[in-house]
Design goal:
Blueprint (H helix, E strand, L loop, with lengths): L6 H8 L6 E4 L6 H8 L5 E6 L2 H14 L4 E5 L5 H7 L5 E7 L4 H5 L25 H7 L2 H12 L4 H10 L6 H11 L2 H7 L1 H14 L1 H15 E11 L2 H14 L22 E3 L9 H6 L7 E7 L1
Parallel strand pairs: 1-2, 1-4, 2-3, 4-5
Antiparallel strand pairs: 5-7, 6-7
Length: about 300
């Protein structure tokens, strides 16, 4: 059902101990979680996902591997620390974030993620949420739409696409939106650049607050790591990767307030929390790219708690 991007590289990057506590913050259809669970003996896996279908499918899959060593938490990973604390877990040995959308979610036309299949404007990761792509497309002002298209899609025709949307409301389905985008830009540009791809991505990011959630969870994830514990993050968007890169860089350097002091003079709270395992992101191999074109934009960053 789903091809797990950079599977071997991320599992290797976690440096899994059989008795360790691990978190898959983005369970999806259990591609990464299955591999983690296979390596555990007395350890435990905690997996987060807010998609009901993914949770049900993955529970059955993981139960066949090891029924006693995993717990699935139906929640957005923004509440990772809070939900784990409720279960008595305050420290972990590894956390994996795979920020890509799973193939079943994209390919299920009814979810409204795809710009190639007609469906109601939805794009909610959590089907219990009320706010959807319909609200963004039909209720946002021109300035708000233009801002998210420029910020999240870096679209140079953001203003004209935003105006086209507002002028053609109500817009109810994905293909209606595609047609509006098509009419809002020069035809040559549309055929060459396919702006609908990036516009849909921008709306999806807005609906699910993806960048805010990522920015909010990383400090908690870092602080929950045991010494020697690792975080692996797979990103698919330059803005995601920038957030991860900056957070990891900040926590792998001596605090600027004490630069110039000798190492033994620096208080512990000002010392680096992290060590960068890879300074440049790991990308998909040629073999993986041949097998799955969706891995083309994937980047993996790994850090270790010192």
């Amino acid at each position: 059902m789903h091809y797990s991007v950079l599977l071997n590289e991320s599992i290797e990057g976690l440096n899994i101990k059989p008795d360790g506590i691990y978190v898959d913050a983005t369970l999806g259809y259990a591609g990464h979680s299955s591999k983690i669970l296979e390596k555990l003996t007395t350890g435990h896996l905690y997996a987060f996902d807010q998609d009901e279908k993914a949770v049900k499918y993955s529970f059955d899959k993981l139960e066949k591997i090891n029924p006693h060593n995993f717990t699935i938490i139906k929640s957005n990973f923004l509440s990772l620390k809070e939900r784990l604390n409720e279960l008595g877990v305050t420290k972990v040995d590894g956390i994996l974030f795979d920020l890509g959308f799973s193939s079943p979610q994209i390919d299920d036309a009814s979810r409204g993620f795809s710009f190639m299949k007609d469906a109601p404007l939805d794009m909610r990761m959590n089907q219990d949420d009320k706010f959807s792509a319909y609200d963004v497309v039909n209720k946002y002002k021109i300035e708000e739409l233009s801002n998210i298209f420029y910020k999240y899609a870096e679209e140079k025709f953001s203003k004209s696409i935003a105006k086209g949307i507002v002028d053609n409301r109500p817009i109810n389905t994905t293909l209606e939106l595609v047609n509006v985008i098509k009419r809002s830009v020069p035809m040559k540009y549309y055929l060459t650049n396919h702006p609908e791809r990036e516009i849909f991505q921008a709306i999806r990011i807005e609906v699910n607050s993806e960048l805010d959630v990522l920015q909010g969870v990383l400090p908690d994830a870092i602080n929950m790591l045991n010494p020697g514990g690792r975080i692996c993050v797979i990103t698919f968007h330059s803005l995601e990767d920038r957030i991860v890169k900056q957070e990891f860089k900040k926590n792998s350097e001596v605090n600027s307030l004490v630069r110039g002091l000798k190492e033994d003079e620096i208080p512990d709270e000002f010392k680096p929390k992290l060590k960068l395992i890879n300074k440049k992101p790991i990308v998909a191999s040629e073999k993986e790219l041949e097998e799955n074109s969706r891995s083309k934009s994937a980047k993996l960053r790994i850090v270790e708690r010192v």
